[in-house]
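Handout, section B. The chain below has 257 residues.
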Amino acid sequence: MKAQHNFKPLSCSECAHGAGLNFDFSMAFQPIVNLHERNVFAQEALVRGLNNESATSILGQIDYHNRYRFDQACRVKAIELTAKLNLNTRVSINFMPNAVYRAELCIRTTLECARAHNIPTSHIIFEFTEGEQIKDLPHVSEIVDEYKKQGFLVAIDDFGSGYSGLNLLAELETDIIKLDMQLVRELHHHKTRQAIIKAITEVCRELDITVIAEGVETLDEAKALLDLGIHLQQGYYFSKPQFQSLFHPPAHIFAGL
């Protein structure tokens, strides 16, 4: 097992204030909507600067030396903000699998914060992206297993892009996959993409994995996804990320679906 660089257990308060980082940040939230139930399935927490600067302005400051503390701070900030905003549904938090070396230790701060704010672990989704090359797949599998053991949900973000696809799904028993926006773009005009998504959803149905489509920008895309059985969707068609606030799509957003 690799040693965690600069590892020490951090309290909820330390993480919330970015202990060990030379910068601070906040969060925006974007809803994942359930088109069958006409409500919000979850809110994804997205990194932003303190004045709503882009995620790139923050992520560009992350390196090997501070990524563990940043990863921990992201979790706590997301939980504290959702508690402050009285979120009554799930919150989805991105995490950096290469920053977690001892899942049972790294998750303690998250558990402490969730308990402090009376948020059930079943209301927290951890997303890891295919865009970050996984250096130790067996270890990431251990992380997924530990998080699920604690009651969290785990998702593969940007599925269908990055460094792997079905091979990653075969190795990691996640609860959710989020289809990459490039598969979704102009879906109604592309039979090939429709066939690919149909195949993916059929595999996920057999494995009892929930499918979410992200990057939905038009009514036509939303309809095409519904025709393929995907009713959990996220994207600008429903709402852009809201800085330090929650957006609940009004009834007219669901018109025609």
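Note. Residues 1-7 have pLDDT under 50 and may be disordered. Compare this with the example in section A.
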